[in-house]
Inverse folding.
């Protein structure tokens, strides 16, 4: 049996040779002893406990579960072939002998079920422990990098090397529509959303992703040497699809020593994008540099935001202006979104020009009003 495993399953070199020469031979012997014990009428042979211990060790050594289960099934196939093939092919099994063989097959299927269940459950239990240990160590490393503390010890604990450069992502995860459903628990829906996002992140990035995420968002650190710039867009899109919500993120690149400042910049950039009501997706600094600068605190921002103060008494005009800018000055789309006639949009834009002194139809007036909208969105306590 072990020779068959080496030739047909482990020939690619995974798992390592010492595992095949030692552990596989020992476990195969235990499985055969288990089979003999079952055939002798034992209820739950003690060999299963040894298999569970072995499975836990395989999980820690990161040996794929599919290889382990395939080996178990192959072992049973080889065993049945050794026992039954000759009699079936030659027709020597008849009457009572065939009935005995059929009963034996039933026992063998029971053995297979017991071994697969024991191995799988032990493997999964250990993987949960390993994942918990890695998660804790990875969070410690992430916190250390974000806060600027030395990260070498934390990196050794979770087996992750600190990269030369990182993509620093500030992430906003909006509420799923079901979180507002009074017939279900919003907290449970939010946790499930987060688990889906985390599972997708693990699938795409493995253990390379360092994340501090809550149901509303957080911070991601991805090693720049392992992920190209275009890949970051795909990752964010994948997270949004998995979470079933329109995720918005901002990204900057920084070496480990500059990550604390990069986190502040990324979240500042994300805050600007969210306040502007921009579409979901990934944003880089160069894409919204003007908006980011206009939203920085200071007298210039406040003076620019004040351009729209006369519209405070006309909320429908402010809403129209914001939607019109978001639709890239397309009056038809603005009218459709607001469910009014295009002529109504034209009338409101003329009123805005009259009240503010700046024409939103185009040119300098549109630029001034758009800048004022950006500054106004960043001003504290602004509706």
């Amino acid at each position: 049996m072990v020779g068959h495993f080496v030739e047909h399953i482990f020939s690619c070199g995974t798992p390592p040779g010492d595992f095949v020469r030692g552990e596989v031979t020992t476990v195969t012997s235990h499985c055969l002893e288990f089979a003999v014990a079952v055939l002798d009428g034992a209820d739950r042979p003690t060999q299963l406990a040894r298999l569970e211990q072995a499975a836990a060790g395989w999980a820690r050594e990161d040996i794929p579960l599919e290889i382990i289960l395939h080996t178990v099934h192959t072992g049973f196939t080889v065993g049945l072939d050794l026992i039954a093939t000759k009699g079936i092919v030659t027709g020597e099994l008849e009457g009572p002998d065939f009935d005995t063989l059929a009963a034996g097959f039933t026992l063998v299927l029971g053995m297979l079920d017991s071994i697969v269940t024991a191995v799988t459950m032990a493997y999964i239990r250990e993987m949960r422990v390993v994942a918990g240990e890695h998660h804790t160590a990875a969070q410690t490393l992430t916190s250390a990098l974000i806060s600027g503390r030395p990260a070498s010890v934390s990196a050794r604990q979770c087996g992750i090397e600190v990269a030369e450069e990182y993509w620093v992502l500030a992430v906003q995860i909006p509420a799923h529509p079901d979180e507002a459903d009074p017939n279900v628990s919003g907290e449970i829906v939010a946790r499930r959303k987060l688990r889906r996002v985390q599972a997708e992140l693990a699938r795409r990035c493995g253990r390379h992703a360092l994340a501090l995420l809550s149901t509303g968002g957080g911070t991601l650190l991805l090693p720049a040497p392992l992920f190209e710039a275009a890949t970051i867009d795909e990752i964010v899109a994948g997270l949004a699809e998995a979470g079933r919500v329109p995720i918005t993120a901002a990204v900057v690149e920084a070496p480990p020593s500059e990550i604390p400042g990069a986190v502040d910049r990324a979240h500042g950039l994300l805050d600007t994008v969210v306040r502007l009501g921009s579409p979901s997706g990934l944003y880089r600094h160069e894409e919204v540099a003007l908006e980011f600068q206009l939203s920085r605190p200071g007298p210039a921002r406040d003076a620019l935001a004040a351009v729209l103060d006369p519209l405070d008494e006309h909320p429908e005009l402010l809403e129209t202006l914001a939607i019109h800018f978001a639709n890239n000055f397309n009056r038809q789309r603005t009218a459709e979104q607001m469910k009014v006639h295009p002529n109504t949009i034209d009338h409101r834009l003329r009123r805005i020009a009259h009240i503010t002194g700046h024409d939103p139809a185009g040119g300098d007036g549109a630029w001034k009003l758009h800048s004022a909208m950006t500054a106004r969105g960043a001003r504290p306590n602004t509706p």
